[in-house]
Amino acid sequence: MENDENIEKALKYLFGKMSNEEKQDFEKSHLENEDAFNDIMLLCQIENSLQPSQTDDEAWKKVNEKLKPKARFKILKSIVWAVAAAAAVMFVFVKMPSNNPKMLKYTASSVCEVVNLPDGSVVCLNNGATIEYPQNFNKNRIVKFNGEGFFDVKHDEKSKFVIETSQAKVTVLGTEFNLNTSLDKNVIVSVTDGCVRIDNNNSSVTVGKNEQATAQNGKKFQKTKISDAPLQWQAQLLEFKDCKLEKVAEKLCYVYGQEIVFDSKEIANLKLTSRYQNSNFEDIMLGISAAFNIKVEKSPVSGVWVIGGK
């Protein structure tokens, strides 16, 4: 049992999985002198060359040849045997995690190109927008972005979602918002749901639902209510898959700058699967009316669209 514990500790040490306190205890208990310490560090380097297909004897021979003759037996041989014997098993589970995950980069060549991020968040890119993100998120969710895009960020209280641009940094926990850095040295963030914080060299501002923040040429952010349709660019292509009409209406309101209400919660919960390309708002309303055989009309007084009215 004690030997198994030593092997486990040796593996954790060689693969860099110990805390600072554990590492200090291990070095004090198992490393006799500076030569032995240097040799264990050498093992940390050459373990990269141990292949899972190698036998115990082959791995030990390869390690032993690289050690200084006088120090070969100063290190517990069980440590090296543990690495060699467990290489085939531990290689996948210990070696694969990395502090530098593979980065992926995508540039949209048309309007409304969708990128699904590793955490389940979704980004809809406008033409020419570029996003760079890791193949797998570690503790932090950090992406780099340039251009215009609509972010639907998956909520995670333990991990903030950070977007880095050349002009500012946007930090969120879970929300939906439009980010535009396309204009020369300008940043515009329009929040359709949730809350975000935006920082640049001159200011920091929190932006909530139905609010917009703009900074020109790196100056202080100015916050206003959304007064236009910040997602108008998405009107060229809208796709909904098994989506509640309530969520469809929210998206249409921001894309087209219209207001939509429902006659009942039952109608708001109906689910729509449809695709609209270069469609005007009235045609979409007529399509929803036909799809569910419900009444859709615009109030001549308030200008509000009512879905499911009598």
Short description:
With 310 residues, the chain is an alpha+beta fold. It is 31% helix and 30% strand. Mean pLDDT is 76; it is low at 44-56 and 66-98.
Strand order of the largest sheet: 1-4-5-7-8-11-12
Structural class category:
alpha+beta
Radius of gyration based on Cα positions: 29 Å
- Multimerization status: single chain
- Please summarize the sheet with the most strands: 7 strands, mixed
How would you explain this protein's 3D organization?
The chain is an alpha+beta fold and 310 residues long. 31% of the residues lie in helices and 30% in strands. It contains 8 helices and 19 strands. A 7-stranded mixed beta sheet has the order 1-4-5-7-8-11-12, with no helix packed on it. A hairpin with a 5-residue loop joins strand 2 (113-116) and strand 3 (122-125). Helix 4 (56-66) packs across helix 5. The longest helix is centred in the N-terminal third of the chain and has 19 residues, at 77-95. The radius of gyration is 29 Å and the shape is elongated. The chain starts with a helix and ends with a strand.
